[in-house]
Specification:
9-stranded antiparallel β-sheet, 188 residues, Porin, mainly beta, 55% strand, 2 helices, 3-stranded antiparallel β-sheet
Length: 188
């Protein structure tokens, strides 16, 4: 495209759209602006929308089950993908879960440095359970011990309330950190 045509197209754009340009953004008549940072918003009309996918393959043999889980999340500012190998043994009110979770897109020197967790759980009744989670992150060398109290008011998974307390030990930082977690889940 030669320079005269480019200038003519630019003038037509400014005249018909009454656009005002400021830095990397273009503001149109209806007060909608497009910038490199919000191109995702322009396509989806929601700057904070994210899409998550999860797939799980599981095989059961008596009280023992094992499998893999794949999770991915696409958001305007990041993309993450994790793979998890897990095993579960469940008998009556007691279960033991182990898992190894690894991020897929990591630098070569960090590959294979995921998180291993071991968590025994005891179901007091169909509504209340107590779980202890021990996890080790090989990447940042953190160890975490957590106790979680779960309450399910209904017999299915429509509503869950979890309260947890944990301590995190790190080989890289000096003090031990403590956390208290509250979470709720609702299914409609």
């Amino acid at each position: 495209m030669d320079m005269k045509r480019f200038i003519l197209c630019l003038l037509l754009f400014v005249c018909f759209c009454t656009a005002v340009c400021a830095e990397d953004e273009i503001y149109l008549q209806k007060d909608f602006h497009i910038s490199p940072q919000n191109a995702y918003e322009y396509m989806n009309k929601d700057p904070y929308s994210k899409q998550s996918k999860s797939f799980k393959r599981e095989k059961k043999r008596g009280n023992f089950s094992y499998g893999t889980k794949y999770d991915s999340t696409i958001a305007p500012d990041k993309y993450s993908q994790t793979n998890t190998l897990f095993t579960t043994y469940q008998k009556n009110k007691f279960s033991i879960n182990t898992s190894y979770k690894n991020a897929t897109f990591t630098p070569l020197n960090q590959q294979g440095k995921g998180t291993f967790s071991f968590s025994p759980e005891y179901k007091i009744n169909s509504h209340i359970s107590l779980q202890s989670i021990y996890s080790t992150s090989f990447l940042d060398k953190n160890k975490k011990n957590e106790v979680v109290f779960s309450l399910k008011p209904f017999k299915d998974d429509r509503m869950n309330f979890d309260i947890g307390a944990s301590q995190i030990y790190s080989e890289n930082t000096a003090p031990t950190r403590s956390q208290v977690n509250f979470s709720t889940k609702f299914k409609f």
